[in-house]
Amino acid sequence: MTPATAQLTVCTTRAELAQARARMTGRVGVVMTMGALHEGHAALLRAASQQTDHVLATIFVNPLQFGPNEDFQRYPRTLED
Hints:
Blueprint: H1 14-22, E1 28-33, H2 39-51, E2 54-59
Parallel strand pairs: 1-2
């Protein structure tokens, strides 16, 4: 799929993700992020799209990755961008 013909699916539950993944055939590239999206993520997505049939990006701000003095609620989430 070229970027012009790519289909974007946003999943918010594990069940939705499982359904979306089940529809993907061939090689699937996965780019994992924590939600503060930047050009580095875009570069990884482009590289994955050149090497695979589908690209799956996870955007998950994991509260377990924050220490007791770190502010999970204030971590940037840039999905709309």
